[in-house]
């Protein structure tokens, strides 16, 4: 599904907690760290093929329950961190859903083969000339 604009907001669960990031006293008092969680297995936004692709490509980031988790705590406010987490989550999914272009196998041309062999011959000659001459020569 190439027209996939992102993960639907109603399928994302946000959790806030205290942040280790910048903010001075603010960090000690406010829950500015945001964790965005999306259950890939239960999502209705992706087809089976897309779900398999996401599960395969993001396997290291998805829990056994099928939940993709992204954390943001760089900013000082919960709202900015929420936007950051959502943006990262959607970018991860967008990249995982891209179908790689199939590589078309090609063979080297006759000229390319000849050029490679010529350069190998030159290199061989150059190295032979560096050797110390033997007594029979």
Described by strand count, sense and barrel closure, the largest sheet is: 3 strands, antiparallel
Structural class determined from secondary elements = alpha+beta
Return the string of H and E elements: EHEHEHH
State the helicity in percent bands.
Answer: 40-55%
Shape: elongated
Secondary structure topology:
Elements: E1 12-17, H1 25-29, E2 33-39, H2 48-57, E3 67-72, H3 78-97, H4 110-130
Antiparallel strand pairs: 1-2, 2-3
Briefly characterize the structure.
This protein has four helices and three strands; from the N terminus they run E-H-E-H-E-H-H. It is an alpha+beta fold.
Can you describe this structure?
It is a single chain. The chain is an alpha+beta fold and 137 residues long. It has a domain at 9-97: 2-Layer Sandwich (Double Stranded RNA Binding Domain). The chain has four helices and three strands; from the N terminus they run E-H-E-H-E-H-H. The protein has helices at 25-29, 48-57, 78-97, 110-130, and strands at residues 12-17, 33-39, 67-72. The protein is elongated. The mean pLDDT is 87.
Characteristics:
137 residues; alpha+beta; Double Stranded RNA Binding Domain; 3-stranded antiparallel β-sheet; 3 strands; elongated
């Amino acid at each position: 599904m190439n027209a996939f604009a992102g993960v639907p907001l109603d399928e994302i669960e946000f959790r806030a907690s205290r942040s280790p990031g910048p903010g001075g006293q603010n960090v000690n008092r406010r829950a500015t760290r945001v964790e965005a969680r999306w259950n890939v297995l239960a999502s209705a936004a992706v087809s089976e093929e897309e779900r398999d692709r996401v599960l395969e490509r993001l396997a290291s980031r998805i829990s056994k329950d099928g939940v993709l988790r992204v954390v943001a705590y760089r900013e000082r406010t919960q709202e900015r961190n929420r936007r950051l987490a959502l943006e990262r989550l959607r970018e991860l999914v967008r990249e995982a859903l891209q179908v790689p272009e199939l590589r078309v196998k090609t063979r080297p041309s006759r000229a390319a083969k000849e050029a490679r062999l010529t350069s190998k011959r030159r290199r061989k000659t150059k190295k032979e000339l560096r050797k110390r001459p033997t007594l029979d020569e």
